[in-house]
Amino acid sequence: MLIQKCKKCSKSFKWSTILKASWSWNGFKPIECENCKTKHYYKPINRIIIFILAFTPLIFENAILGLPLPYGIRSYIFWVYPAWAILLMLLSPFFTRFYIKE
Ligand SMILES: [Zn+2]
Fold it and tell me: Record's InterPro entries (predicted)?
């Protein structure tokens, strides 16, 4: 889990650059290396990985709800989803991968 480096010159991309490229509303823009200006394109597989990860709490939901938890704790379970979504978004630059078009 490392932020991707430029495939040409090995300069690391910034976390914020990748975050913006991955979560912009107007589609996926290629990111450009600050050093050598090589364009890197967003791999579609990233979307699938994020999609699968996004639904991970649902897999554990039944297990958690099946536990004899006191009602006070149970009411907090709702917050797992937005917290997970934010966490996933903030961590996405660590597993998002880009490629160079030949
Ligand atoms: Zn570069």
Answer: CxxC_20_CxxC (IPR026369)
**What is the SS3 assignment for 32?**
strand
Which stretches of 2-101 are assigned E, i.e. beta strand?
A: 31-32, 39-42, 98-99
- What is the CA(2)–ligand 1 centre distance, in A? 16
Residue 96 Cα to ligand 1 midpoint, Å, equals 17
Stretch 86-91: mean pLDDT, rounded?
A: 94
Residue whose entry in the numeric block shows the structure tokens 């160079």:
100
Please say whether the beta carbons of 22 and 28 come within 8 A. Answer: yes
pLDDT of 22-36, one tens digit each? Answer: 888 777 789 999 999
Nearest Cα to 93, choosing from 28, 30, 3? 3
